[in-house]
Amino acid sequence: MAWEKTISESELSAGARKVVKVGEKNVLLVRHCDKIFAISSTCPHWGLPLELGRLTDDCGIVCPWHRSGFDLATGDVKAWAPWPPGLGVVLGATSRQKVLSTYPVKVEDGSVWVMTEQAEPTASKK
Ligand code: FES
Fold first, then answer.
1. Can you identify the CATH homologous superfamily of domain 4-114?
2. Could you report the per-residue pLDDT of 75-126, keeping only the tens digit for each?
3. Distance CA 51, CA 65 (A)
4. Domain segments of the chain as ranges
5. What is the number of helices (H) and of strands (E) in the chain?
6. Span 14-61, pLDDT tens digits
7. Binding-site residues, ligand 1, Cβ < 6 A
8. Pocket test for ligand 1, best of 39, 41, 51, 65 (most atoms within 8 A of CB)
9. Residue-wise over 43-71: b if at least 16 C-beta within 10 A, else e?
10. I need a surface site. Which of 15, 29, 43, 115 has the fewest CB within 10 A?
């Protein structure tokens, strides 16, 4: 496994997000809760972009499409496609519940480094 240098830490202010390519993967970097997280840039529900997701006070992200919620650190599911009301249950059932992929991230020499050599997400499977 190897760390890959991405962007300068200064490019990611509080609440900011940026999609970077690390190896073959599109990784979404997010600065929130005084940390930088590296997660999949797409939602595990339908694979739609997470970049505009809402950040929550409990260090999570909510998908802008059907509002699945995930823990930024572990990728654990907090909610699975609850939107829109009523129809969300049907939409949620179209895809098996999966954790959001998360990746090891560190800041070194003023840059954000990400490791994506792992085949599986770092979060536990549900
Ligand atoms: S694509 Fe994210 S909740 Fe449906």
1. Rieske [2Fe-2S] iron-sulphur domain (2.102.10.10)
2. 999 999 988 887 777 777 888 899 999 999 999 999 999 998 754 555 544 4
3. 11
4. 4-114
5. 1, 11
6. 999 999 999 889 999 999 999 999 999 999 999 999 999 999 999 999
7. 43, 45-46, 48, 63, 65-66, 68, 81
8. 65
9. bbbeeeebeebebbeebbbbbebbbbbbb
10. 15
Encoding tokens for residue 82?
């609850």
User: 27, 51, 41: which is closest to 116 by C-alpha?
Assistant: 27
Tokens for 122? 């770092």
Residue 92 token pair: 């949620």
pTM, rounded to two decimals: 0.88
